[in-house]
Amino acid sequence: MALVAVIGIVAFGATARAALTCERSVPTVTVDVKVNEPQIDNTLTQSALQQLAGVAYHRGRAEGLYKAKIAADTAVFVWRRGDRGDTCLWIEQAMVTITTPLRKIYIVRDRHPGTCNYEAVLGHERKHQAVDDALLREHVPLIRAKVEAAIAALPATRPVPLAQADAEERRLVAIVKDSADRAVKAMSSMGQARQANVDSAEEYRRIAAACR
Question: What predicted TM-score, i.e. pTM, was given to this entire model?
Answer without folding.
Answer: 0.79
